Amino acid sequence: MYCTNCGAEMPDDALFCTACGEKIDHEGEAAVGPEESGYNGKTKKWARKRKETSGAPKSPKKGIKIALIAAAGIAVCGLAAGAVLLNQPKAVIARGVKNTWKAMCTEESGVAEYLGLRQISRMVDTGKSRRKAELAVSVGPQDMGIGLADVGLSGWLEKDDKGKMLGRVSGTMGELEIAGLDFYHDNEKTVAGSPELYSKYFYVDHQEWDGELEDERLDLIAEYWDVSRENWIALMKNMSVEKIDKRTFTVGGKDKACQGYELTIDRDDIRQVLEDMDDVMLNNSMLVNAAAEASWTSPEDMKRQLKEISKRLLGALKNDLVLQVYVGPKGRIVCVEGDYTLNGDVITMSLGGSLELTGKKNPLDTVYLEAEGKVASMAAAKLTFSRELNDSGNMIKDKVNLGLSATGAGMFNVSAKAEANASLNKEKGRWNAEASLTLPGVQGSASANGTVGDLAKGKQFVVTLDDASVGAYGLSMPFVGITASYGVEPLKEEIVDPTEDVKLVNVLKLTRDDLNEIGSEIGDNAGSGGFVLPGVGYSSTPATTAAPTTAAPETTAYDSGY
Q1: 241, 89 Cβ separation under 8 angstroms
Q2: Which tens digit of pLDDT belongs to each residue from 285-294?
Q3: How far apart are CA 368 and CA 371, in angstroms?
Q4: What is the DSSP code (8-state) at residue 126?
């Protein structure tokens, strides 16, 4: 019998697939053979087919009592067999991947859990929200209070659950407001314009946009998804998994013995994955035409070049991929190690490394990554990355380290190191962060501190950067000062279309004369008082264009929170 989910072969009475762990429905869809559902050995295309059952159900000829006894016996035997099958290496690895991915995507910990960022993100993405951000940068010797070029950027955005958005972005230099951009979006049109520079607003009518490019992108994404899923199922079916010795890792602050497995993926299966992905790209005219235009060549030449590159890469795949995988508590993958060698016609490349995910709640709370690569005897590089987050009492501490070194046949020897440390006081809402970067002959550092205030989990969020300083190139004092704030809160008022009385210009119907007129007006306004000068109270913006910057969204309650 073969699994209807991944095509793996298994005993006829199995209740769960030994490869992917999928429950087998013996009364519904029948498991099909490899020639009907599996990885075709000749074409290597994964085309799963469902085997239809026919015929009317047969009436039971035995008594109800006998049927119940038989069903109970089958259930007991099935559970016993399932318990054994679920401990098979392939099934353990499949569950390990699934459980690790689920933990990374759904479990909160540390800062995210404390701030309720998942609820806030949901409000921003799908609900009604209002966001406001401000940024100011001062360049100069900060310890002396000198700012040589102070620039600022601020903006706000409102979004409702009906697809409407309204917002504004503006910039300043010193105390001078340079310009602003207003925008509005709904299901029918998108409008944008700068009232300080131009008397009209530009819009795109969605009904006039053919949407062909967007459809091509969506089709491409869907095709990539289908091909990736089919190849993943094929790899899971064909890979071989064997138990190896256990190893001890520190998980959740305690030493745990994790079961090891050696996973082998056939070289031909890896080649097939790459070939399938290449087919998707080479058969998509949008991608090929874009690549051809960027390379100043024809689509036909572009295809030939891409095929040649693919051929060289596939020809370099000489070995199977062998990984050592260790599965720990909760069935999650704790560590993955392995290496791989590419043998090309000209050069030989080797890649190796390991990845540990041992966070107590979220696997990413504690991460260690080490990777090494070599190109024959010409060059070598090593990358290390670690992250450790501790949440204890009223304090959250996060530490990140990144290291990189590279050498090349006596020609160069480069190393770089970056460190970052951050902490958050839950009780007082104070946070601070420090970072440093070390390069040959150069050292740089940055520090920042601020507050997290007006916080109600999932309802409102405001973070303020009180001060940030950056120093580098051996300077004894920081030369960049930064202040910023960002806040999110629920939308209090309904978003209405503010462009009914605004002069609109259809972007899709612009003529050369229109462009000349637009450029002339923007130039006149920019050079003759088109900006809003503090204290002067003058703006060249016509009254009819003020609608998108309506003051209604700027509610007093919202601004007072910042």
Answers
A1: yes
A2: 777 777 787 7
A3: 10
A4: H
